[in-house]
Amino acid sequence: MADSSFDIVSKVDKQEAENALNQAAKEIEQRYDFKGVGASIEWSGEKVLMKASTDDRVKAVLEVFEQKLVKRGISIKSLDAGEPFISGKESRIEAKLKQGIEQDVAKKISKIIRDEGPKSIKSQIQGDELRVTSKSRDDLQEVIALLRGSNLEIDLQFVNFR
To answer: Is the dihedral of CA 115, 121, 126, 130 positive or negative?
Structure first.
């Protein structure tokens, strides 16, 4: 019998992120507490740029964006938001959507699988994703449950289950 496998990836659907940003922009435009504070949210290359007149208001813009991401099925773990900084007369926050699994995180995931998972499991790092293989599909499902229960700082998806 051939080995079964699946891939562990960390990807964000760009179109869903775009929709979340557009919804957040629309809400910020309409909400009374954002009137007259210069609040806005927009793409700046690959990053999301949030602006407002004070740190509190720009944090509120970030909160609105996070709510829209969650409603669209994108985990908050996928958003890497910086601290507010002053630029001219306004506060700004730059946020980035995480794509792919970084090398050190991939090694940490691989170690969790080795230490806590079934012994028949093999994992290998392939660029920005991980391939997990085993003869038993039950063992693979056990690994998925194990990783869902572990507290990692990134959002994981499990794809190509064969």
So the answer is: negative
End-to-end CA distance of the chain, in Å?
Answer: 12
> What's the whole-model pTM score?
0.83
- Alpha carbons 84 and 50: distance in angstroms, whole number: 9
Average pLDDT over residues 86-104: 89
Helix axes 137-149, 103-116, angle to 10 degrees: 120
The whole-angstrom separation of Cα 67 and Cα 20 is: 9
DSSP 3-state assignment of 115?
helix
Question: Given pLDDT bands bounded at 50, 70 and 90, which one contains residue 1?
Answer: low
Domains, in order of start, for the chain? 4-11+101-159 (3.30.70.860), 14-97 (3.30.70.990)
